[in-house]
Write a structure and sequence with these properties.
289 residues; alpha+beta; Beta-Lactamase; 3 domains; 6-stranded antiparallel beta sheet; 25% strand
Length: 289
C-alpha cells in the first residue's frame, strides 16, 4: 500500500508513504512461471479485466448494499402475519449482525415471483442489482418455478423466512471461495411468496472467530438442540453438547437445521464412547455435489 499523487490525466507524479496520504493505492506484482501462448494471454487479460470490473462494482456499491440490508430488515418485520415473533427477531438480529463487519458485501438483487406466459416465474428485477449483480451480461431471464428441482422449488413455495446457503460460483473479489448466499422471502397476506431479496458475499474472519453460541440464527439452533436433548443448563451433558456445537465449522452449522445438528452431535457422542473413527457425511439440501 502506497500513497500516490496523480495529475488530472491520471498520470502518477509522486509516491508518498501510505499513512497520512489523501490517496492510497495497492501495488501488486505477479510473475508467471512460463511463457503463455497467445490464446492463454487473451484469456488471462479477459479474466483480469472481469475481476477488476467486479472490484469496481463492489467498491462503488458498498454503501447501497449495506442500505439494502435495512430494506431486508423492514421486509422481515412485515412478515409478522406469517412468521412467529421469534423467527422475525432472529432474522433481524442476523441481518444486523452482518452489518457489524461480519460480511463482505459482493452482490444484491431483488427477484419477484410473478406470472409470465401464464406460468409462475422467478423474475429478476435487473434494475435492483448491486455489486457483482449489477449490469449483468447477458440479462437474466424469468425462470418458471416448475423448471426448478423439487428441493429448490420448495424454497420459493414454502419454507423459512430466511435461507443461508452457499453458491456454486466462487467469489472473484476478496478471496477464492464459494460465496455465502442470504435469501429473504417476502410473503403476501395470502401466505404466498411475492419476492426474494438475495444477498451475496463472504463471511469475514470476525464472523468465523466468534462463538457460534453467540451468533444469531446459530444460537437459536443450539437452543433447539439442547431443548430436544432435555439437558439441564450447567450439567455435564449440557456443557458437552455446547462444546461439541462450538467445534462444528460455522458453514456446516448454517447449512444444517437443528434436527440434523442434534443427530450429528449424537453420532459424535456415540463415536467418542466407542473410541472409534467414523466418517459422517451430510447431504446438501439442494442435492449439489
Amino acid at each position: 500500500m502506497i500513497g500516490a499523487q496523480r495529475d488530472s490525466e491520471g498520470q502518477l507524479v509522486a509516491i508518498t508513504t501510505a499513512r497520512g496520504a489523501t490517496h492510497r493505492e495497492s501495488v501488486q506484482h505477479f510473475e508467471l512461471d512460463r511463457e503463455l501462448t497467445d490464446a492463454e494471454t487473451v484469456a488471462l487479460e479477459a479474466s483480469i479485466a472481469t475481476t477488476l470490473s467486479d472490484i469496481l462494482k463492489v467498491v462503488a456499491d458498498f454503501d447501497p448494499m449495506r442500505a439494502s440490508v435495512q430494506r431486508m430488515i423492514d421486509v422481515a418485520k412485515a412478515g409478522v402475519h406469517h412468521y412467529s415473533f421469534e423467527d422475525i427477531a432472529e432474522t433481524v438480529d442476523f441481518l444486523k449482525w452482518l452489518l457489524d463487519d461480519n460480511f463482505v458485501f459482493l452482490g444484491y438483487r431483488q427477484y419477484n415471483i410473478a406470472e409470465n406466459e401464464e406460468r409462475d416465474c422467478i423474475v429478476p428485477v435487473v434494475s435492483s442489482g448491486l455489486g457483482i449483480l449489477r449490469d449483468p451480461h447477458p440479462i437474466p431471464q424469468p425462470v418458471p418455478l416448475n423448471d426448478l428441482s423439487p428441493e429448490l422449488r420448495e424454497r420459493y413455495v414454502g419454507g423459512e423466512l430466511m435461507v443461508i446457503s452457499k453458491t456454486n460460483r466462487h467469489a472473484s473479489v476478496h478471496r477464492d471461495a464459494r460465496m455465502d448466499y442470504v435469501g429473504l422471502r417476502q410473503i403476501g397476506r395470502d401466505g404466498t411468496m411475492t419476492a426474494e431479496f438475495r444477498l451475496l458475499g463472504l463471511f469475514t474472519s470476525k464472523a468465523y472467530l466468534g462463538a457460534a453460541s453467540d451468533t444469531p440464527v446459530l444460537r437459536r439452533r443450539l437452543h433447539d438442540v439442547l431443548a430436544a436433548q432435555d439437558v439441564i443448563e450447567g450439567s455435564h451433558d449440557y456443557k458437552t453438547l455446547v462444546a461439541l456445537f462450538e467445534t462444528f465449522p460455522k458453514d456446516e452449522l448454517f447449512a444444517m437445521d437443528a434436527e440434523a445438528i442434534g443427530e450429528t452431535i449424537g453420532e459424535l457422542l456415540e463415536t467418542e464412547e466407542a473410541q472409534n473413527v467414523r466418517l459422517i457425511v451430510r447431504r446438501d439440501p439442494l442435492n449439489r455435489s
